[in-house]
Every structure is written in structure tokens, then in C-alpha cells.
Amino acid sequence: MDHVIAPDRRQWPRATVAAAQLASVAGAVLVWETAVRLRVADPLFVPTPSAVAAAVFSGGAETLPRLCDTLLKALSGYALAVVIGVTAGLVIGSRRMLHDVAMPFVVALYGIPKILVLPWIALVFGLGLSTAVLTAALFAVFPIALMVAAGTRDVDPSLITVARSMGATRRQIEIKILLPAVLPSVLAGMRVGMVFAMLGVLLAEMFAGVRGMGFLMQRMAMSFKAAELFAATLIVSTLSIAVVLLLEHVNHRLGRWR
Amino acid sequence: MKILAWRAALLLGALAAWEALARPLSPVLYVAPSRLPAAFSRIAAVNDMPPLGAHAWLTLEEVAAAYALAVSAGLWLGFLLGLRRTVGRIYEPLLAAVYAIPSVVWYPSLMLFFGLGPASKIAFGFLLGFFPVALSVLAGIRQVPQHLITVAVSMGARPGAVFRKVMLPAMASTMVGGLRAGLALSVVGVLVGEILGARAGLGYVINYAYGLLMTGEYAALVLIVGAAVLTIDATGAWLESRVRRWTT
Fold first, then answer.
1. Which parts of B100-214 fold into alpha helices (H)?
2. Please, which residues have CB within 8 angstroms of residue B183's CB and are 6 or more apart in sequence?
3. Pick from A84, A99, A191, A97: which is nearest to A152 by CA?
4. Interchain proximity A202–B104, CB inside 8 Å
5. Are A232 and A243 in contact, with CB atoms under 8 Å apart?
6. Which residues contact residue B209 at a Cβ distance below 8 angstroms, ignoring those fewer than 6 apart?
7. CA-to-CA distance for B236 and B64, rounded, in angstroms?
8. Which of B117, B125, B177, B198 lies 20 to 30 Å from B27, alpha-carbon distance?
């Protein structure tokens, strides 16, 4: 409360904040380790961090190919979703009538939990690659389309009028005005879409997979391999954060180009 | 009016296309819309399916518990991190990093810990609903115009009054948006949990129909649950717009 009322009080420097972050994470790990050692938590369900760390290294041989498998499926579904989502978003966003007619349907489809359709996709496409890829695309396509449509619609029309009155060709307008104006929302949609694509693949693998990280994790949970399960969770989480940070970096670079 | 007509035409066109596509294909895999009314009545017949009412009620209870937990924890943490600057600077990036992880990775661990019963569904619904609530409170606090607070304080308002009369109205619309997103995600979390493995609840009934290749019943259930989710969301949107109008 105090800082809101008197905002210009002394601030911790950035390095101190980072040190505090590290210290809190380390402290949490330490508390966790002692809690399990002292049998406050049952090691059958909650492994010690040291056991998880050991499992990360020992399980690498089994985890790595499955991780690549999952990542490959996520990227394929993501590519599909980006192509369809960006195209649909541009088309819907740039035509007023179409936007008014079609938008409620897109929003409704976005709102319905996609997990409901997953059993049907698995039924039609089986237990393999295509189910996971399609689920990833299904999860990612609506947020991308919605964000691109919103961005396209918000392009300032006076910019186009001015450019046209100065004699710009249609092509010039598209490249010099529309593209930079729409780019931020396309990139934002692409960043959100990646998380959704990962989500879709993992979900499909948990529901109807025979390979991949989702399947592996579900099987570990069923067979009470807590340490391996936590290790797998840690690996997938780290990977997802890395991918998001990478996309953010690309985003930043492209933002500067604009 | 013209737009409404076009919308109806689009919907009918989609249904007709679906019917035309599904007709010649295997009825086990593809359900034509014309088969849906019969499927709806078969769901209601208790001897074909598990009794729907009890399962729907259980799912509703799980959603309510998950959402209540998500809202209380999300508001608490959001205000804690938002109002104490140093704590916020330390923990907000960690919160954002955890939010970037695709949430299903947590589900197997929760299932291991809480078992196949309602507890793991509530835990997952809570986890999904918690983040939008907490993050919207943080975003809302950042939105409060500083000069309003300065003016209020210089006129002698106490911290409590500043909070109630200045901060809450200024951040209300963002916060309500987060509360609405949290509800939608709590519903999704419970449904995901039930479909990935449960012994009761709507997700279980959906899986039951799917497992016995009762595709018509499955499609009807999906439509019912989807419509229910959209109704909940529409109610949330209506409340959100009411709050927006009240604060601006």
C-alpha cells in the first residue's frame, strides 16, 4: 500500500532482485527436501528434489527421443495453425461484413473447451501422429485467428486513405502500411499459439498416445514413479519457457525492424 | 437484421455441409446432424447411459470448489504482490514464467498426488483459474492513475479510503476480466481432468459414451456441455460489461 501512496521510495537494484529470486527458489527447494526427508510429505507421492535431479540425468536416454517426438508434433500443428489462423484472421479482419457475420462463431468456437472434441479426433485419426498434430492445430488456431482479426480491424483507415491519395499502389499499401500495422498482433498471436500447440499435443498424448512426453508422464503417474514424473515435468516446463522466451526475443527484434 | 440473416445462413450452410459429408461415411465415426435429436433422447434414457443429473451436479460442484479456491488465492496473491513493491518485483517474473508452461504438464503429478477422485480435478481447475485472476489484479493495480492517488492522499484520504474509493474502481474492469477468464479456465481444468481419467462427472460420461462407440450420444453430450460452457461465459461477459459501465 505504501508505495502506491508514496511511489518514489528507494527501490531494490536489479541484481538484488535477481539474487532474491534465486534465494527464494533455492530456499523452497531446501524446505521441500527437508520436508520429505522428515516424512512430513510421503516420498511415494512427493519425491525429494535430489531424487528428481538424479532422475533428470538417469532418464535422459528415454526422455530425449520422446521429447523430440512431442516437440516435432507441436511444431507441425503450430505451423498448420499459424497458416490457417493468420489467413483467416486477415480475411475476417479486413472485410467488415464478413467480420460482423462470422466473428460470433469464431468467438464461440474459441470459447468451447477443445478437450471435448479430442475423443472424436482420436477415434477418427487413431493413436498416432495425426491426432496429436491436429489437436495442437485445433488448440492454437482460434487464439491466433482472433488476435490477428482484432489487429487487422484496428488498422487506422486514414493511413490507407492518405497513402492512396498520394498514389500508392495496392501492393505498396499492403507492404508498407498493412504489414507493419498488423505485424504486432500476428506476432502476439503466434506467441500465444505456441503455448496452446504444446498444450494440445501433450493433452492428445495423455489421452490417446503411444509415444511422446504426455504419454510417458501419464504412464509414470499410473505406475507411481514420482521422481521420474517430476523430472519429466521439469524438463517439459523448462523447454516451454525456453520456447516462449525465444519467440519473445524474435518478437522484440522484429518490433525494432518496424 | 441483414447480418443476423447472414449468420443464420452460415450456420445452416455449415449444418447442411456437415450432413452431406457425414451421410455417406461410417455412422460409427461421423454423426450427421439429423441423427442428433434421437441421440439427445437416448441420453435422457437412464438404462443406456449413466444418470446424467448426478454426474452433471458433481462436475458443477468441482467447478465451484476449484473456482472459489482460485479466486481467493488469486486475489490474495495478486494484491500481495501488487501492493508490496519489493515482493512484487521478486515474485511476479516467477509467476509469469510458471504461467508460460502449458498447464497440462501438471496434471499427471496432481493425479498421482490427489488420486482419480474429485480432488485432482478441483486441484487442476484451481491451478488453471488461479493465474488469470492473480495476473489481472497485478495488471489492474498498475493501471491505477498515480495522480488520482496523489490527489486523494493530499486531500487527507486514509489508505483504506484510497483503496476503496480510488484503486478498486480504477482497476475493477481489468480485474473482472481476469475473474471471467479464470472461471472459463476452471471449467476447462475440471473437464480436462475428468476426461483424462475419472470415475464420475460429465467428462466420465463423455468418455463412457466414447468408449462404447456410442458416437451419437457422445456428440449430443459434447453439444450440451459446450452450450453450458458458452452460457456460463456469456453470463460472465454480461456481468463484465455491467461492471465496466458502473466504473466508467
1. 107-114, 118-143, 146-154, 159-161, 168-196, 202-211
2. B67, B129, B232, B233, B236
3. A99
4. yes
5. no
6. B49, B215, B217, B218, B221
7. 14
8. B198
A22 vs B: CB within 8 A: no
119-158 in chain B: CB under 8 A from chain A: 141, 144, 146, 149, 153
Domain of residue B109, residue span? 34-247
Tell me the whole-structure pTM to 2 decimals: 0.86
Residue B22 lies in a domain: no
Helix, strand, or coil here: A35? helix
Q: Which residue has the cell 473437464?
A: B191
CATH number at residue B216: 1.10.3720.10
For position A168, what pLDDT does the model report?
Answer: 79
A–B: how many Cβ contacts below 8 A?
A: 145
Contacts of A63 in chain B (CB under 8 A): none
User: What is the rounded average pLDDT for all residues in chain B?
Assistant: 86
Q: How many domains does chain A have?
A: 1
* Residue B198 lies inside a defined structural domain of this protein: yes
| Domain ranges, residue A77 | 70-257
Let me know if residue B23 belongs to a domain. no
For residues B215-221, average pLDDT: 85
- The CA distances from residue A39 to A28, A33, A50, in Å, are 16, 10, 15
Q: Is A56 inside a domain boundary?
A: no
- CATH code where residue A85 lies: 1.10.3720.10
Residues 99-158 of A with CB under 8 A from B: 100-102, 104-105, 108, 111-113, 115-120, 123-124
Task: Give the pLDDT score at B46.
Answer: 62
- A45 inside 8 A of chain B by CB: yes
Please report the ipTM that was assigned to this predicted complex: 0.84
Q: What angle do CA B179, B182, B187 make, to 5 degrees?
A: 130
Segment B27-44 shows an average pLDDT of 78
Q: Give the whole-angstrom CA distance, residue A161 versus residue A177.
A: 11
